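Changelog note: in this version the structure field was regenerated for every chain. One regenerated record is shown below for reference.
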Amino acid sequence: MDDFDLILQNGINFGRGGNKPKQDDKVKTKAKKKKYITGAHGSGSAKQKAKYREQRANRHK
């Protein structure tokens, strides 16, 4: 019952729980670089994705 009374008096805090440490060991990706977006580096899957992006960009022109 003490917890319930505390909640009634103070309310519930839904804010952020504090400062989270930064993650310096993130994985770097090449997926956003221009060569990969345009499919220029030679990978078949990248060329196919570039084709789909181009089709989507030209869809409403």
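Spot check on this record: Residues 52 and 58 are 10 Å apart (CA to CA). Helices lie at 2-10, 34-38, 44-58.
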